[in-house]
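Exercise 7. Given the components listed, write out the predicted structure of the assembled complex. Treat all entries as one system.
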Amino acid sequence: MATYRAPADRRRAWTYVPMTALAAFFLFPIVFMLAASLKTDHQIFADMDSVRAFLPVGDLSFANYAAVFDRVPFWRFLGNTLLVTAAVTALGLVVNSMCGYALARMRWRGRGLVFGLVIATLILPFDTTIVPMVYLVANLPWIGFDGLTPVLEFGWLNTYRVQIVPFIVNAFSIFLFAQYFKSLPKGLEEAAAIDGAGWLRTYWRIIVPLSKPVFATVAILTVVTSPATWNAYLWPLMTVQSEELRPVMVGVQYFFQLDTAWGEVMAYISMITLPMVVVFLVFQRAFIQSIASAGMKD
Amino acid sequence: MAIAVERPVEGAAQAAPPPRRRSRSRAEQRAATAFAVPGVVLLLVFVIGPAVVSLVLAFTNARLVSPTPPEFTGLENFQRAFTEDALFRRSLLNTFVFAAVVVPLQGGLGLVLALLVNQRIAGRNLFRTIYFLPVITSMVVVSLLWRFLYQEDGLINSGLSLLTGGAWAGQAWLAEPSTAMGAIVVMSVWQGVGFHMVIWLAGLQTIPEEVYEAGALDGATPWQRFRHLTLPLLKPTFVFVLITITIAAMSLFVQVNIMTGGGPVGSTSTLVLQIVQKGFQQQQMGYGAALSLVFFCIVLALALLQRRLTRDGD
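Answer.
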């Protein structure tokens, strides 16, 4: 038996060689980052030409992490990122799913036009309109409050809303929702209408509970790929100057200097990477599924 | 799933008779409008609006902050871009070169990874997780990390020196015009390939097992099975992967912004970097809008190409 299986086993064993080599290729920078974040700059460079570069050995301390807190208001940055990410994702789920629902399952005048609009903006990368976007948000009106008196203000620069509102709507999310809602069984609405439920109740009580997978997919894709959520960098760099509103990724700018303190840089980027890695490891199956279904849209 | 349909809805007890068709359709019109309006308004203001503004500004000399109102200047911005602005032409070329190298590299490696983790072997989920890990790492983080790795006294050089027994002298990868773009290519593939591995993997898993069994019965070798069964069946995935990597590659920005600022001597400057530098940092909004329009046309062409390729597949 054993001899009979040998060739297949041997071939199988061989596939571990390239797989392990590739794993090393994908892991080495991350392991190096984590190890270096615990070392002094002197030791980082001393360890560079041996395997010690990847190992937490030598004179280890959390001094770099402590230094990060001295250099940047870390909790403030993290709070800003979490707030903006949560707002863009949650509001996006509501707005895009309702729009997708109207497109997929309701008959109304203007539907074809709106559907055309969504398809037309599907591929428009955000970078193509970034320059007029800055101009636009610098002049947009907003109703602010002076005490209890509403005041018409102009300009959205240096606010949370400039980081949130422009990114709520997403043509691709609308598209994914519409596709999913179309696949639900016909007649759900008619049954609900006979029971006296209005459209909003039907949507909220029947459609949403049946559609949890697509909500999860859109939420994950928003967090991982939106230019305004966890990875937000260019947009807040251009529109938010006040420190107390900045997100974590813009915080890397605080470490750009002539004589870079690399230990601190490694500590900071470890701090802004690990939360997302933990979330990914916990919800791994959902992450992979979401990205896979994005590719299956055709 | 259909069970939920039977779940009693609140108020079901006093169920009204089915509403008349006409009033229902009017109610439907009202409800649908209410459902769609928030999305449509946001889409018009923040997606279509800026695109239209960009289209107009591209033909003016508008500045971000300016005492004088913008003037219509016709095709002057485009003329400047393609005849006077050597840095823009260099950036356009760099962007195309980057895309031309990254697309086959990332798409191909993604497929190899997908084939590897699609085997029925122990630990394949662990390998899939490891290959996907860089995707979860922000490009901002990745760029800073690799900037350190690429330094003259960085890890890449010490690794090469170790492998060659000290023969490798070492070089500052990002400071040399000849190696800077290549260094950014390698790093970008490292970060993005896991994403496309997952998409390839989903494509591979749509191929029914029987196809391979039939192939094996016909005596096809593993290579023949891959060449004549797997590849043709992956065509829809192929088009999707091709276009998403191409559009992402054409948008190259964060890496060069953090690692090189477009240097040395323009060797890593890109289209989006130029849009941001001209349109925002130098406040030449009209010119920046013109460059955006060039970018938009390229992306549009790619999207049309995708539609054509997928239609051919049907």
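Discussion: The radius of gyration of chain A is 25 Å. DSSP finds 15 helices and two strands in chain A.
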